[in-house]
Amino acid sequence: MEHTPNPKPLVSIVIAAYNASEYIRETLDSILAQTYGNLEIIVVDDGSTDNTAAIVKAYIPRVNYYYQKNSGSCASPRNTGLGKIKGDFVTFFDADDIMLPEKIEIQVVALVANPEAVMSIINYRNFKGNERTADHFSNCPIFSSYVGRNHSKTFALLSEECRRIMIDENFTIASSPVFRSEYLKQEQGFDETLTACEDFHLIYRLAIHGQVIIHPEIGFERRLHDQNMSSDNERMLKNLVNSRSSLRMIEKNNQFSRFLNVRVRQYLRKLQSCLINKGETISALKLYSKTFPPKSIDELRHDIKQFIKIFITFNSRNL
Questions:
Q1: The domain that contains 68 carries what CATH number?
Q2: pLDDT tens across the length of the chain (319 residues)
């Protein structure tokens, strides 16, 4: 007998929260206002020292609250939440973002209608105060060409298409996808060794399993503020290197693996520049063992410039 999928499957929404008292009430209200009703909302408090716990507990029983000691990253509380879910589908949502009313319904309807798809990715825009930016997809020229080809309507990317685009252009973030829980559990969630880029790393791994549904309409708003984790340049570059290096090892497509290696070398050189500018010349020199010898004229020029900077910095400190 052919299995008929549940038209209204349970969707689990996992929110990792750390000192989120300023914004989390607005976030939870936006989720509770979804047009899709069969939701399980899980908040994992990653050791907050503010009023986050009291605010979230006021939403019980509509929201499930869990506390853990601070991990220092998003990956650990998200994985804790993943271990609690009951839904056929799961999405992760940042504790300061705003979910537009139809986000979940749009994505779940598409996943139910396309059982071969492993996840659904929806567009978003950034905001700060009353200012809104253009949608994110429009700022991704490679990805936008696919959106344009499909006349800005919902469409499916093949696994290979999605991965190839992601190597060159990160067109999504953690709050966007709705995943099939089975694949997410199979991949064992987020890599907790990463303190940034963990969402890119997970989405790429999931994309290996099958098609990805793309929704050009805006499904949520990402809040920009001074506490956004992506503001630490050195930490971000180290995680860019580590995430792409890890993906390079599991990527079965040899061409994609080579492309990922090119990205790793580019990020290593940017990290070298960052360390030199901070005066950490010894750490910068150690990275050259991973990028030597240069594989292009541009890389050679970059290395010459960096060695000159190191020489000047070293001599100025020893005069």
A1: 3.90.550.10
A2: 344 566 799 999 999 999 999 999 999 999 999 999 999 999 999 999 999 999 999 999 999 999 999 999 999 999 999 999 999 999 999 999 999 999 999 999 999 999 999 999 999 999 998 888 889 999 999 999 888 887 778 999 999 999 999 999 999 999 999 999 999 999 999 999 999 999 999 999 999 999 999 999 999 999 997 765 555 889 999 999 999 999 999 999 999 999 999 999 999 999 988 888 888 878 877 776 666 555 666 655 655 665 565 555 555 555 4
> Is 50 part of a structural domain of the chain?
yes
Q: Which long-range contacts (CB under 8 A, 24 or more apart) does 46-49 make?
A: 46/16, 46/17, 46/18, 46/70, 46/71, 46/76, 46/77, 47/18, 47/71, 48/17, 48/18, 48/19, 48/20, 48/21, 49/19
Angle between helices 254-277 and 233-250 (to 10 degrees): 160
Same domain for 131 and 277, yes or no, is: no
My answer on whether 170 and 181 are in the same domain is: yes
How many Cβ atoms sit within 10 Å of the Cβ of residue 295? 12
Count of domains observed in the chain: 2
Q: Is the pTM of this model over 0.85?
A: yes
- Residue 14 and residue 40 in contact, taking contact as beta carbons nearer than 8 Å: no
Domain-located, residue 3: no
In this structure, the answer to whether residues 217 and 242 fall within a common structural domain is: no
**Is 221 in the same domain as 239?**
no
Do 13 and 39 meet the contact criterion of CB atoms below 8 Å apart? yes
- Its domain, for residue 72, covers 11-231
